Amino acid sequence: GELKRLECDIPYRVFLKGRLYPGLAMSRALGDAIASHAGVSCEPDLSTVELDRSCLFVIIASDGVWEFISNQEAVNIVNEAMGSERKVRAKAAAERLALEAFKRWVEEEGNVVDDITCQIICLR
Question: Which of 89, 103, 105, 107 could serve as 113's disulfide partner, Cβ 3.0–4.6 Å?
Fold first, then answer.
């Protein structure tokens, strides 16, 4: 399967006036009505992707997964973890991807690890 995601050089973040932490990552703004006074919209951007028979699974993951793992690496990790028993192994594949993301955060950032969430949806 081919994955697509939005890529930004620097993620946008909104802060309360006079504060530097924690800040609201724009990817987390969905439904955040409190931040509306700072100009944050809780209206989602939607897009559709047409899937064909070659698509085996969908990976849904937080930015903590994508920070140090490319789209193709994620596909390879999931494909390898699922093997031939795709529907039975989706949970194991998600766990494997999350663990790899965690390892890469530790390698790159030491004791700082972003939130890591992922789900694999089997299509066939």
Answer: 105
